[in-house]
Amino acid sequence: MSDVQFTNVRIFDGGGETPFSGDVLVQGNRISRVVKTGYGQRSVPVQGAQVIDGAGAFLMPGMVEAHTHFSWNDQPSLDAIQRMPPEEHILWCAEVARRYLDMGWTSCVGAAAAKPRLDVVTRNAINDGTIVGPRYLAASQEITVPGGLGDTTQPHLPQPEFAFGAVVSGPHEMRRCVRMFAKYGVDTVKINLSGESITGMPSEMSQFTEEEIRVCVEESKAWGKRVAAHARSTWSVKQCVKLGIEVIYHASFCDEEALDLLEAHKLEHFVAPGLAWLIRTVNNASEYGLTPEVTQRMGYHRELEAAVESMRALRKRGVRILPGGDYGFAWTPHGTNARDLEYFVKHVGMSTMEALLSATAWGGPMMKMGKQIGYIREGCLADILLIDGDPLADITVLQDKARILAVMKDGEFHRAPPVRNARTTRWAA
Amino acid sequence: MSDTLFTNVRILDGTGANPYTGSVLVSGNRIRQVGRSTAAISPAGATVIDGAGATLMPGMCEAHTHFSWNDAATLSAIQTMPLEEHVLWCAKVAKRYLEAGWTSCVGAACAKPRLDVVIRNAIASGQIPGPRYLAASQEITVLGGLGDETLPHLPFPEFSFGVNVSGAEEMRKAVRLFLKYGVDSIKLNLSGDNFTPQSPADTTWMTDAEVGAAMEEVRLRGKRGTAHARSAASVKQALRHGIDVIYHASFTDTETLDMLEAAKDRVFVAPGIAILYAMLHEAEPWGITQAKATEMGYQIEWDAALESLQKMHKRGIRILPGGDYGFAFTPHCNNARDLEFFVKYLGFTTMEAIRCATLYGGQIMMKPNELGLVKDGYLADLLLVDGDPLANLAILRDPKRLLAVMKDGVFAKTPEIASQRAWGRAA
What we know:
The complex is a heterodimer. By secondary structure, chain A is an alpha/beta fold.
């Protein structure tokens, strides 16, 4: 691994300041020097380092996706995801992991896998170099109840292999289930606290008893695992705060009490709303039979309004809202995740700066890595993107692979910047 | 896909003819033109690779590949790898074979039912890089035979390396299951193996009724039968039942050799002698001393195999490289060593050894008129080698000497630019 010096770049360092011109030196897997250079000033040469002249490109920390499902296979239904055989499914996960890194997501937080070990195996394979992918926290399957979101078994086909999630009933089964995933080596236990309108149980309903949730949290914490919840309903959001579930996905329906609770505990929780799912299900899923009339009837239009209102309120109260969520369906394909940042600006009222920070500065603690990632600062891990354009002026440039000139993870280029004037003749021997 | 022109290369075309200097134009996934002159073909927009005198030869074919063997020392250590990890392992190994110059591989059995099929499909769809591949079934065996790794108190099929059958009807069912999964070949363990002392190499395990039922189904669906056949009786059994690919064939008598010779236009023999050599001389770190290996019967088999294979070679029976790489003592991607063994122990010329991996490779891959040679119209599977493999076959095992690997017109390993610049420029 050779050292790399980026010169002539506009540096967004993750601290929320206006970007500045400068040089960044990467040695090994860390950022060892960040220098501001004035106009016309020449950079200090470094012996032996590969020099990347950024020609004014925007250099920023690698982004963190807070709600990732590598094993969702861009299909239109849970059943179609679940039916992929395990051999093909793990290869799919490997392919998708690379795609995330391609698109500048140098870290991802797994939010549930479609089969018990997919996330764990993918994480391990990334870590040992078998496959290429972002830093990853592995999740369990979704733990749910009979009839709840994720129970895709049918009355005549009750075998657990037909279920998308892990179906449990009662605290005893819950404990056993959590222990099984802990044994498999997950980082996060995912529990579906609320329904999901597309599945039959509406988003405003809550499916578990408090006792079951308590056992889930207790057992997870005993194993040192984090709990993440699918929580769209008001009651489920409150349960997250009350029982100490750190990661709250969706939080669409927050009443005043829920907002107060979240604000009071804002440094103990992360909220990843996954707005793309709502926005695109309402607007972009007609070709899969989900016309606006259908989604209206399902309740998604109302939920979108509620979710936007909740997020606007949470933003004002300083609760950490992070991008990511439910990419991997046919109408939210993997790799388009930076749309979330656009939605934050358009719908939630964030500035482009806040949107960028939600994907960088808040990504470190979301990855349980504190301030080691998410910043372009001396001593931080070298997860770096080089962008053609200014995301602060136009947040959508991050959705365009061609504008993401380079992706570096842990000091190594996953995608090296294109060299200008590449010659057509190659010489061998 | 842009066209590629190799200029100034020494062409070793795979037919057995002597190399000549020339240039080769690849257009799309095929070799469009082979020029036998030092004057290059007109590039006309093609990427030009100046070979600077390097050898250009056909991509090699491995005739007995086990992607799913995980470089472990025992069958059960291979078998106990969980499914998900096993698939990723296979994907990783497939890429390494391609980069090592094996542009085609013939699957010879996998350790779980669908591993080979899934890997073949993923390669074919472009999801993962790998050689052209023919997918095999698991090894089908009988109770107590090679591949039955179940223990008396753990009789569950998931514990077994191969699929255990007993009787023609169970055989038929097992074969049908693999055919349903989409394999290209059905692998039958006809003989034992000294690796499993309860079923040594010179023993023969299946009834003709069982083999017959298997081959009936194989023929019905237009697939191929392959056999693990070390004993003379098992080789003859394979030939009687129309099995085309015979692995090992260590022990032969005159009748066996006559039968092989009579079938030489359809039969391929891949002896896999590396494992015999390794067990005798290189397995001590895993507890198999030479004395132990000799006691297991490997010295007797080695001597018999050399004699058998030398005779087969004289009779013009096609012998191909490959076999049982993927154990701790025969790690993956050393496979070109087989060619050296052919020369050193079986009396091949280096040219004959190369031809086994190229001309015969196209034939065993079922593409005899479009794969395995550097020839106009053939599929563009090519290696650019720094040096002369005819003078030193060992360079084929050296990644540094393998300058470029092309499969189907696309570089799997791109030749390095001689004066690579130390800096890049973005934006």
